[in-house]
Automatic annotation (TrEMBL):
One Pfam entry name: DUF6349
Protein name, per record: Uncharacterized protein
InterPro entries linked to this entry: DUF6349
Length: 154
């Protein structure tokens, strides 16, 4: 495993690789499920950094995000991403408004509230094509309704 001595560069990206291992192969302590035959690791295409071996995709993606976007865990949690085009575009705009400028242009992850489990990270689901990482938490606060809407439905 390579060790990075300096902070990630602007070229760092959150990426993982995976492969199948042979039965009986010794698993390092970073592998939470030694009997599972798939291994994953964060691997940065920008600087060559590699994370520890993992057996869980979520762990490898989190390692990759920790490397390329060290403060990603402090970013706001968004409502679940809608499937309908118009609503999804509004969701993308809302995410761009609360995340740092340039975050999604570098394929930064978005933290997404997932009310019914389903915590698997989704590559390509963030506004810039990065990961959407599921978060188990209280639902995010909805933005206040405009005054006209409140008067009609309040």
């Amino acid at each position: 495993m390579s060790v990075q001595a300096e902070p990630p560069s602007g070229e760092c990206r959150a990426s993982i690789t995976s492969w199948r291992v042979e039965a009986g192969e010794q698993a390092p302590p970073t592998v939470s499920r030694p009997g599972y035959r798939i291994r994953l690791r964060a691997r940065c295409p920008g600087c060559g950094h590699e994370g520890p071996l993992r057996s869980e995709e979520e762990e490898a993606v989190e390692d990759a995000c920790d490397h390329a976007f060290p403060d990603w865990r402090d970013m706001p949690v968004m409502e679940p991403r809608p499937y309908e085009d118009a609503r999804r575009e509004r969701w993308y705009a809302a995410a761009r408004a609360v995340y740092p400028r340039g975050w999604f242009e570098r394929e930064g992850p978005v933290r997404e509230y997932r009310p019914h489990g389903g915590m698997r990270p989704l590559l390509g689901a963030a506004p810039g094509g990065g990961y959407s990482v599921g978060v188990a938490c209280e639902p995010p606060a909805s933005p206040p309704a405009p005054a006209l809407q409140q008067s009609l439905f309040g």
